[in-house]
Amino acid sequence: MPESRDAGLILNLNLLPGGTAKGSWRLDDRDPSWFVSHHHYVEAAQIAERGKFQAVFLADTPAWDDAYWHHPWRALTPFIALTAIAARTDRVGLIGTASTSYNDPFNLARQVASLDLVSDGRAAWNYVVTAGDRPARNFSRAQADPKDERYARAEEFVDAVVALWEAWEPDPIAGDRTVGDYLRPGAIRPAAFAGERIQVAGEPLVPPSPQGRPLLVQAGASERGIALAARTADAVYTHQTEIDDGVVYRNLLRGKAANAGRDPHTLKVLPGFFVVIGDTETAARQRHQELTEATPDAVRLSFFARQLGIPVSEFHIDRPLPFDLIAKAEISRTAASELDRLLDAAARDNLTAREVLALRHNGTQHVSVIGTPEQVADTITAWYLAGAADGFNLHVASSPSVLTDFVDHVVPLLQAGGVFHHDYEGTTLREHYGLAPHRLSAGVLSS
Hints:
Layout: E1 10-14, H1 38-50, E2 55-58, H2 78-88, E3 93-99, H3 105-118, E4 123-128, H4 133-137, H5 147-165, E5 173-176, E6 181-183, E7 191-194, E8 199-202, E9 215-218, H6 223-232, E10 235-238, H7 243-259, E11 268-277, H8 281-293, H9 297-308, H10 323-326, H11 336-349, H12 353-359, E12 367-371, H13 373-385, E13 391-396, H14 401-416, H15 429-432
Parallel strand pairs: 1-2, 1-13, 2-3, 3-4, 4-9, 9-10, 10-11, 11-12, 11-13
Antiparallel strand pairs: 5-6, 7-8
Family: Belongs to the NtaA/SnaA/DszA monooxygenase family.
Protein name: FMN-dependent oxidoreductase, nitrilotriacetate monooxygenase family
Enzyme class: oxidoreductase
C-alpha cells in the first residue's frame, strides 16, 4: 500500500476560545464562562465534523498572560479537552499541543496514546518548543534554557516518544483463554532510548490504536525546527501569506523530507487561514470592524508583543516601538515577512504602537479573507491548486458564528469545485490525511 494518497484539501479548525477576535465574547449573549468550558470546544468540534473537517486543533500556553483578564483563554489542558470532544464526535481528528521543554516523554507518550486509543485512532501530538521565562518559572526554572538547548532537548524528546509508541508489535493482544496468555509472546519490547538529555528504558502501557500510532504535527520555523519537522512530522503549520511564498516553503519542507529518506508526500503543509464572512464584502468588513472594536487595545498590544517576543510592559500604546529590544528578539521566521513590513513602516514613519496596530489587516500572520463565501472558497482553492498548501489550519474570527457560516456556505463551494470531500472515507486521522496506517517497527522512526 502506498504511504500517501491525495486526500484532497485538508481543513483543520483551530479551537481558539471564542475565535481569533479576542473581543468576540462581548458580542455573544451567552454566559461568558461558556468560552473556557469543554462545552464550547465540543460545540465547535461538532460543527467542524458536520463540515467534514479532517481535524480540530488545540494549542496551549503553559503560563498566564496578563491579557487573559480581558478575554477567554485556553484554560483546559489540551488532552483533557480533546478527550471530552472524542466522546461527543465520531470522525473528526484530534490534535493536541504539548511542550517538549516542560514535559516528560513517558507521561506525554502515554497521554497522547490514550487519546488515540479512546478515539479509535484520531489523535495527533503537536510538539512545541517553549520560549520565555514566565513559563519556565512554573516549572522550577528561573529562566528558559537557551534556544539551541531547547531544540536539542526537543529532538531527543520526540525520538523518545516515538520509541515508546514503536515498542509494540501489531495486534499485540492474543486473548488466549485456554493457556491464559493475554499478550502475544514478543508483542512488546522495552523502549531503549538513550540521549544526552533524555533516557527512557521501559515498556509503554497503552497498546496501539487502529492507526498504529498518533500523528506528529509541528510548527517550528527556525532552521532546527524545519529540520526536525522534515524528519519526523506528518503535518506542519506555517505562516506564509502569499501563494508564491507558500509554494517555495512547501517545496523546501518536502525536499528536506526526501533528503531525510521519507516519501515527501507524507508531509502535509497547512498554513493558517483567517476568515470573516459576510453576504457582501462590505458586510464582512463591517463585521470584522465590530469584532476589532470589541477587542481592547491592551489585548491587541499584548498579542503583538508576544509575536515579537518582548514583554508587553516595554510597549506604550501611544509611543514608538522599542526597536532596540525588537532587534534582539526571537521572531518566528515564517511570520517575519508580515512583521518585517510593519516594522519597516513603523521605523520609516516613526509610528506609535497604536498606529502600527491600525495597519494590521487582522491581527494575525496568516492568509486572510474578509469577504464573501465565494471569495473565501476561491482563495483556498487557488492556494491548493497552486501547490502552496495541502490544506489550512482555519482561524475563524468568531466561534461558533463565523465557523457555522464557513461550514454552511464555504464548504459546499469547495465541494462543488472538486477540491474538498463530501464525506469521510475512513475513520482514523491518518486516513483523513491520505496516509497509510502506520507500520509499527520496533523503535525505528518511520511515517
